[in-house]
TrEMBL record:
It comes from Marichromatium bheemlicum. Pfam families: DUF58. Residues 227-266 form the DUF58 domain. The chain crosses the membrane at residues 47-65, 71-90. This is DUF58 domain-containing protein. Keywords: Membrane, Transmembrane, Transmembrane helix. It comes from the Bacteria.
Amino acid sequence: MSRSPERARWRGWFAARFDAMLRRARSDPDGVVRIGARQIYILPTRFGLVFGAVLLVMLLGSLNYQNNLGLLFTFFLAAVALLAMHHAWFNLLGLELQARPGAAVFAGEPARFTLSVRGRGRRARADLRLSGAEDAAAPLAVPGDEQRGCALAVTTRRRGWQPLGEVRVETCHPLGLFRAWCHTLPQAATLVYPAPAQRAPPPLGTGAGARAQPLGTGGGVEDYVGARDYRHGDSPRHLDWKAYARERGLLTKQFEGEQGRELWIEWAALATADPEARLTELARQLLDAAAAGARFGLRLPGVEEPLAAGEAQLQRCLTRLALFGQEGGDDH
């Protein structure tokens, strides 16, 4: 039993050394990954190993029976296999890969990245397969000197910048006898907002400094002005469940009494001890204030976002929450 931790330590050490030895294609200053000759790995597939074993049996049989026609056929198939190996290698050589991040998401949602693949020259590229750590795209065929795109998703677990990470490009073209692949590191990162809490205390209104009434609780029927399409993060108490039961889709109620209110979303106004939990409550307050059409601002330790309204203000404040306390977060 005492040897198990030691073995695990050595396995981890060898895995780290092997990973450091891998030749990866990295992004240029312009953000494009160009696959070079020394970054392509190639090995036979299972079908290729079986094919090689069959060729060996044919060679031994032809030599044993001195069958010249059998030898000719064996060497012909071996030449075809060698050509397939070179074509698999050339299928990746010179490819250009560029990644673009998708829209910002909340923690727990998948971050999506768009990848563009371009083949330089007139040679068409077939059966290109791109995969990340958690997702794989459908095979691509890229005509000569043209560009094709695909998408990969990465699961987010915490706020901040979520990088795409390593993307493997591989191919088994043309005969499936060999698999050529390359490890690439595109430069792309998506912003991840803190996941909004299910509920949060009402924020402070301007003026007397007392807490405002919970958003979305208009005092009478005259306050209701209509409904809009549901947006992620809308409070469940704002949802129009009767419309949903009538199969009209998921809608969010809006109240006229909430329009024009001024609210401060403040770090110091919350009593939650855990900083990350406090950020989730602030995210919920921001979403509720934006859904109500109020003017709102954000106050964090050392940071203040002035009062404003609208989607742009919401994105600015959520960005402040996502990067709060993270050094170098604004450099992306």
